[in-house]
What does this fold into?
Amino acid sequence: MVLNMVLKCAGSVGHKHALVKPRSLILLNDLQRRQVPHTTNIVARMVQYALIITPALEESCICMPAELRIFPVLGIGEVHPGDDIAALVLAALTQMGETLAERDIVVVTQKIVSKAEHRIIDPSTIEPSHMARMAAAQGHKDAAYYEVVLRESRRIVKMDRGVLVTETHHGLICANAGVDESNVAGGSTVTLLPIDPDASASTLRAALHERAGVDVAVIISDTFGRAWREGQVNVAIGVAGIAPLADYANQPDAYGYVMHASNIAIADELASAAELVMGKVDAVPVAIVRGYPYVAAAASASQLIRAPEKDLFR
It folds into this structure.
């Protein structure tokens, strides 16, 4: 009853931030079950806390969705240099009987963006340097491949047993500077990361808005390994129309503790969630996330990169 009361009161006002955190609702139900006195007053305070939000806090309020829908965009097919990704996405959605909706999040893999933007290279056309030959002597790829990696790198973070972890010119730290041999037709070619993933996301977002008539967010994703953990996950390397971080600093939790260092990488989480319906070998390079109440903002994926002065491992 308490849960229904809070949801009903919050929903009746229709405020875009009228949502009580789930753990708070669980706490209220627990109070009622144990017949704690003054539960009704607690409910009233919770509703007031949920609904009366000052303008200064309105944009920073973080709302949890009731549910999310994530679905793959099927039928895009092979992407070639110069292809119009927005046209491919919209045509595929039409074939599926789907359309873009207001505030959808369009997650696109880096691979098709790189292909469309001519970021494909044949390493055999490149003369390897002495450093590239040294890496090849330790690793399982030829020297020309490592030369491409070195040219795409700002600095080498770690080189061991033929594995290069580098910092790209974007500031991303990843294996082999994001140079990738998978899902590339032609056998000998590799893809490079987009020159400016944020600009790629922004261009795609504008094209989708112009043609579909709805305002969406766009995330360009790529697959990264993780220090100290096995397995890879998809992360955001470019964003448009969405704040990539949700900062909970100075917000109280359900027990009144004021958080200080909880800054959630929303864009990375959305990229990883979208990958679950894409797969790595199913040729599905785009997914739609629907129902997540993100903060629309002119932002950059570079906000997800920890500054050197805050990085304990530099």
Q: What stands out?
A: The chain has three domains: 2-58, 69-118+194-310, 120-190. The longest helix spans residues 197-212.
